[in-house]
Write a structure and sequence with these properties.
It contains 6 helices and 5 strands, in the order αααβββααββα. Strands 1-2-3-5-4 form a 5-stranded antiparallel β-sheet, covered by helices on one side. By secondary structure, it is α+β, with helices and mostly antiparallel strands.
Amino acid sequence: MEARRLAILSSHLCPSRSGYVPVRSSIISASDCASERQSVLDSNKETLRNDCVFCQIIRGESPALKMYEDEMCLCILDTSPLSRGHSLIIPKSHFSSLETTPPSVVAAMCSKVPFIGKAIMKATGSDSFNLLVNNGAAAGQVIFHTHIHIIPRKACDCLWTSESLHRHPLKLDQETSGLANRVRELLLNISEVSKDQV
């Protein structure tokens, strides 16, 4: 697993090794996220980090093929794509995981999904896409800067081995009911803590 993480991280840091040659007009410039965004960045608990490849891309220090950018986020092509057009929506501020990312930033990222996803599907001739967040090491996250994957799909592309797994119906038993009750209880506690902090 560690070797896989290192290989993916390396591909993001050194995309030219995989045959990627950046087109100058598509490379992200630092202007949108450097001085203009400094006051916003300073207000975040986590700011852009020197050791984060996505922060380096945002600052214009590392190449990337940019497809979309606004004041909150940008969308780039993944340098190790699972399918043609595999893209990443990345917030311009550094948050290591989804749970540390403010809801307003998650909302800004997610609000772009229909718009960007439609363009990616049209450009790739796909008729579907997966929306994926690997949140945490056990879930496959290798770059600890929140990001959303948009993965274009075509019928019978056999991308996920799990698609061939037989799914089982949910058992409505005491264990399942207990799980649902526990999650509701935790959500209620989280909501109460959030209200107390306001």
